[in-house]
Design brief:
Number of helices of chain A: 0
Oligomer: heterodimer
Largest sheet of chain A: 7 strands, mixed
Strand order of the largest sheet of chain B: 2-10-9-4-5-6
Distance between the termini of chain B: 40 Å
Structural class of chain B: mainly beta
Strand content of chain A: over 45%
Order of helices and strands of chain A: EEEEEEEEEEE
Shape of chain A: globular
Helix content of chain A: under 10%
Largest interface: A-B, 22 and 18 residues
Structural class of chain A: mainly beta
Distance between the termini of chain A: 35 Å
């Protein structure tokens, strides 16, 4: 099983700042099959990035994903008020499919 | 528009059973793998099970193997999760989602509470 570790657990930032979220894998994620989701309280997750670096349809270009192998990053170039939420990485290259524990981006 | 409507959650005693449903619309249901994902209160996301388009392949997370059964009825555009021998640790919001990998479309979730 591929274990995903997200850091930091909490990221206090102000609107307009840059957010850098990390996702480390216990072993290489095949074919960079890694996704990023945003989740707000009481709602289902929202797909942001798939295949490590591809933005899903309708996702603003301030969101970008990068990385390969065991190290992946989600970057939000300039935080908007609606971006404060919890973010999860997920790998789908190896069964069982697994998620990271999440990073909460909160208002500083 | 793709829509997934979850239902069937509720309060059940330990050892009990529950059947969750997911009604799909807005796409050709029989063309897609389907998945169940759960989230315990205040916790992260966990993949539970998925099923191939024709139901011929099914996969489960180890913690539910032998207790949960995923199934589908393509004629009714519906996905199911039969949950038996429920435990307190199964308490979660259960979401259905479209696809087998990165999930763009999700249901609204249905809460399952296992408690005496």
């Amino acid at each position: 099983e591929i274990v995903l570790t997200q850091s930091p657990a909490t990221l206090p930032l102000s609107p307009g700042e840059r957010a850098t979220l990390s996702c480390g894998a216990s072993q290489s994620v095949p074919s960079s099959y890694l996704a990023w989701y945003q989740q707000k309280p009481g709602l289902a997750p929202r797909l942001l990035i798939y295949d490590a670096s591809n933005r899903d349809t309708g996702i603003p270009d301030r969101f970008s994903g990068s990385g390969s192998g065991t190290d992946f990053t989600l970057t939000i170039s300039r935080l908007e008020p609606e971006d404060f939420a919890v973010y999860y990485c997920q790998q789908y290259g190896s069964s069982p499919l697994t998620f990271g524990g999440g990073t909460k981006v909160e208002i500083k | 528009e793709v829509q997934l409507e979850n239902s069937g959650g509720g309060l059940v005693q330990p050892g009990g059973s529950l059947r969750l449903s997911c009604a799909a619309s807005g796409f050709t249901f029989s063309d897609y793998w389907m998945t169940w994902v759960r989230q315990a209160p205040g916790k992260g996301l966990e993949w539970v099970a998925n099923i191939k388009q024709d139901g011929s392949e099914k996969y489960y997370v180890d913690s539910v193997k032998g207790r949960f059964t995923i199934s589908r009825d393509n004629a009714k555009n519906s996905l199911y999760l039969q949950m038996n021998s429920l435990r307190a640790g199964d308490t979660a919001v259960y979401y259905c989602s479209r696809g087998a990998t990165a999930w763009k479309n999700w249901g609204q979730g249905t809460l399952v509470t296992v408690s005496s």
